[in-house]
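Suppose a colleague, Dr. K., hands you the sequence of a protein chain of 80 amino acids and asks what its three-dimensional shape might be. Before reaching for any lab equipment, you can write down a predicted structure in token form. Begin with the sequence itself:
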Amino acid sequence: MAKRKKLDYEAAVTELESLVERLEQGDISLEESLKLYESGVLLTRDCQEALQSAEQKVQMLLQQSGQSTLVDFDPDNSES
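The predicted structure, expressed as tokens, is then:
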């Protein structure tokens, strides 16, 4: 299996959106649909890894600044 190049998060999301649009059109063969689905799964994994990496970096920065944990954002409870 050839090694594939990982895309950055934004490029991966853009590619995923394109794949979904093609799949939703429904005018491609089953074989092509399966290939697109497989590509989508791999792109989704890349996105999850990028988000996990970003969260780890944020956690490290918070620890360095003396803050121990992230607080969930609640837009309904934000100060105006």
